[in-house]
Every structure is written in structure tokens, then in C-alpha cells.
């Protein structure tokens, strides 16, 4: 008999919800200090209590469906517990939460990306082997992956619950390494509906990068010796460099024509050794940068991940760099816990084995072991940008810390060797890059210019320019050409520390650009305080690139509205609320209010205890529309709770008869700020293109203490 899971009601807030104001704590009351096993257990139990309280309040079927993934105590003596949302033991894709505790064990905040109201049949209708065959049929990359084998042994297949545009799906996530294809290596990932066999989602999980070539000059590298033989293996850092001999190979890094770099002396001058020297040197400098600047011990934080035993000491497992991959291969990539570098074709690239490549590729590993940003769409663009950022910082670190024009160029030494001064990407001016006309100005440096198509796994390399330029502005400052917003730089050290902490502490796999801004503000608060120059710069930086408001602005700086014809009438509520249809004692309209976002009129909800109120407009969404709903929200509340949502505002989609179809977002007293301080929200209603629906705001309040929800400048395009 098939098992049907009922509704799992979990509140989803945008990205990160602040639940208490950071405060100075009495060090004598700290319960977290050195990250001992006892401290880890205390943090885990306290965090479980927080999540169980949320579950109990929300009526979750089984609070134990929230599984602890990892508990860490950081250099700030804060504890962070990551949770994976599951349903009957099956994980929910990008359904995650992080509980952040102060050193004294009190709750600081919760990063909440849990999926609400998950309803799914948890019994698959076919096997993993059948899922592999189906997945391989969906794309050329998938068809060629792992040859014509029917076995699923070389593929990675697992059940996941995936939230689609219209409903939740039980899916097989099928990852099919195609690394042996030296012309176009790929790692296609296909989500196959486990009941119907439909393709739900697809992206390429080969996390590629670009960098420089063999021009670090004469360098000193750490090697090992056994008997009369030296090896290009660093036993202290647990890193080894291997020669692929211009062949493709299996993803295991063993067998085939892969060989160790070895010799009877410790001089590595041969032509075939030079790429290995650069990769080995780059790996060491990357390790040192993360260790000395961010106190991180290796890619996974615990000295690994090692894949191959060292020749000089088999007890040491090495993190592997592989050079001379394939024939004239114009790229480098991180996959299966290894760095792999091509030699280039001599025209588009020379060997891609220098400092910013090493930093880029190993940062993909750091990302995998922390936030694990999904390599598609906005989270994928953030994944790529993080690698560009720390590739640049590794290069800066290794070259003495002085910023030059080349600091902001990605791949400048390897890219088109016959053209001086150019680069693959430019952090200071992303528009200088050319990505085949995907946008008017490749690459975009402002959210309004972002690519929204499906190529490049949803623009992971294209849209990385937005976050790259944000980092550049945070470091050196400047005025953004499009927004006109001026940023005061805080220097590379402070900016990099904020970027690193946001990645490792506050981001989850589904974090988007808006979530990155929130994560970085959280990180800046931890490191420098919420009233610091660093915090202000981070807020201004993201405002400059079109994400969020500028601090202290008399008029909030809007995130650009989607292009296209406006579908709603009077979304600014000027003169009257018509044609919005309103009811309930918790609904109000004011034509000349004290706290408008724009103009003078707006609607608001709540105000009193034990009331409800709603307002809707009926609209037809054409099939050609983007289906993006945006609005500005200001929440004020007398509630003092830092954990419980007593008063709520729901954004709903209903049919013309009033039947609820979906609740794209829920807000509460936990979103409170000061009167008149609005933030723009953006919701995807593309699932209702071609339909006539009601777009409704609805509020409920409990029996004590009041909350007010103000809504203004609503747009649907």
C-alpha cells in the first residue's frame, strides 16, 4: 500500500530571521568555548529544543523529521546547528535551517529555509536502475554519461523530495559523472519524478573555474622523500599533485594513465613538471590562506578530504590536484573531492594551473562542505562568485597583499595568451566580459540586468558578476554606474572575513542574492557590530548592485521590478483602495497615512487583537508574463518574543471562487522593524500563468499584544 504523508506545516521566512538583538555577554556565563564534545552536545540539544518549539507551534506532524547535519562552535564562541528537513526519512531539497546560539547558549537567530506544507507520496513506483535509464534519456550529456552501461554503480542516485512549480514531487536525484569525455566533461544531474518518470529539474554539477597559467616564477614547494625517490606530495598539508598525462580518467583518480610526480632529486624543472609545480604551489597557498586568515583546516575543515594515500607515508591521505587533464582541455574543475586542470589549446587558454585557479577550485570544495550552494540559478551564481572572490584573495595573499589591477581579473594570465591585458571575467567591471550575448551587458553587475534563462545552469557564471562586483565595491568602494549608489570600501581583509563567515555560517544550499545580503549582514554583525562601518558598507554594497535598501536612505532603494506590462491596478493604493476587495475587522486603508512607502496611501492589517482581515484583486496572468509579484512590507509589533509567530500575514493565491491554491509567503511579528522601514518582497507566481486568480493579503492576530502589517506598491508583471 502506498504511503501518503499529510501536511507538514513549516513556516518559511525569506532567508534569515533575526530573533534577538546581538548583545554583549558576560564571558563568565559562556557555555561554548573550545568546541569540546560536551559543548557540541549542549549546542545540539538547545538547538533541537528551538526547532521542536517551532514544530509544536506550527503543528508539524513529526518534529523529529528535522535532522541535525552538523554542529560547529566558531571563533566567536557562537554555536551553529544545521538541520535538514526530511519527510519519513527522505530529505527535502534545499529544505534547511541553521540555529545560531550566542556564547552563553541564548538564541541569536534562525536561518530558515524550510519548506512549508510539504505533501507527497513517499513510495517510489520504480527502481534506481530504472531512474538512471530515464535520466540518461533526457539530455545528450546524460545519454553519454558513464557510456552505455545499465548499472547504476558509477552514478549517484538518491531519493529527494523536490518542490516544483505546482506541487511537491518524490524524485530520484540522478548524478551521472561524464569526466572521461575529455572534449566536454560534465556531471549532469536530473531530478526524475519517482512516480511518473517526468523530468522535474536538471543542472550540470561540474563546478568549473578559470585562472592563470605557469607564471609564478621559481617557487619553493613542500615535497616528500622515500628512499631515493622524491614525490610532489606535501605530507604536512596533506596535498599531492598527479600527472594525468593528457588523458581523461575515471573520477576516482586511480588507474588509467594517472601517475605520481617523482624523481631522484627535489628539482622539478621538466616541461611536464611545470604545470604540477604551479598546481602544487597554488594548493599550498590556498591551504595557507584559509588556515592563517580564516582558521580553516583544509577544504572540509578537518584536514581533508583526502582520496589517495601518499607514496612516502601510506597513513597520510592526500587531497589531490590533477594536471595535464585531457587533450587541449580549456577549463579546470572541482569534482569528487579533487581539483583537475586542463592544459588549454594554446589559443583560448594556456595551462590553467596558477594561484587564482587553485583558489577558485578549492573554494568550490569549501562551499561543498559548508553551505553546499546548489550549482544552478542564483545559488549557483553565488557558488561561482565565492570561488572567484577567494581565488582573487588567495592570489592577493600569495603575492604580498598589495591590490593591483590584476587582482580583479579572473584568468588573466591563461586566457587568450596572444591578447595582452584581457581576462575571462572582471570583478571591477563585469561588463567587460563576453558571455555570448545572454544579456545586453555580459556579465551583469546589477540585479536588474541578471540573466533569467536556462543556459549555463541558469546563469551560474553569467550572474556571478553581480556578487563579484558587490565584493569589489565592498573592498575598494566607488559609485555604481547604474544605481548611482556610492560605497565606502572597508578593505580586502574585512570584506573577505565577512564573505567567508556568511558562506560557512549563514548560507544554505538554496540561498539566493537577497539571502546572501542577509547572511553578510549577519556576519558583519558578529564580527564588527550592527552599528559598525563594516555593517553599513555591506548594506550599501548590496543596495548598489540592486539587492535590498540602502541604510539611512530617505526613500528606500528598490530592487528593480520585473520588466513587462503591469497586471495589477492601483498597486500603490493612491486615492482609494479600489479595485482591491477587502473585508474583516483587521483590514484598513488610509489615503494619507503616516508611513507610506511611496505616495501617501497604503493598506494595513492587524492593529487589534483577535481579528482577521484580507484584501484581494482578481487578475489574469498572461502566458507571456514573467509572473513575478513584488510588494513592499513594513511590520511593527509590540510582541517581544524572539521565537514564536503569534500574528501573521499570509500572501495567498486563490481561484475566482476563493479556494486557496497556494500560500507563497508568510510573515509575522518576528519580521518586525521600525515604523516606515519597508523591505521589498518578490514572489514567483509563474505557475499561474494563463489563469485568472485572486492575489490576496490576509492577516490573523492572537488574543494579546498587537502587530501591524503595512503593504504598499504592489506589482505583478
The share of residues in helices is 10-25%
Global Rg:
26 Å
Within CATH, the superfamily of the domain at 370-555 carries the name: Neutral Protease Domain 2
What count of helical segments does DSSP give?
11
Gross geometry: globular
Question: Any low-confidence stretches, pLDDT <50, length ≥5?
Answer: 1-24, 144-153, 208-213, 249-256, 554-562
Give me the count of strands: 34
Strand content: 25-35%
Distance between the termini: 44 Å
Class computed from helices, strands and strand pairing: alpha+beta
Under the CATH scheme, the architecture of the domain at 370-555 is Orthogonal Bundle
CATH class of the domain at 370-555: Mainly Alpha
Whole-number mean pLDDT: 85
3D structure, described in words:
The protein is α+β, with helices and mostly antiparallel strands and 717 residues long. Among the domains are: 16-113, Nuclear Transport Factor 2, Chain: A; 128-205, Roll (Nuclear Transport Factor 2, Chain: A); 370-555, Neutral Protease, domain 2, CATH 1.10.390.10; 581-716, Jelly Rolls (Sandwich). Helix 6 crosses helix 9. Strand 8 and strand 9 form a beta hairpin. The chain starts with 15 loop residues before the first strand and ends with a strand. The strands form 8 sheets. Strands 10, 13, 14, 15, 17, 18, 19 and 20 form an 8-stranded mixed sheet that branches. It has a 5-stranded antiparallel sheet with strand order 1-5-4-3-2.
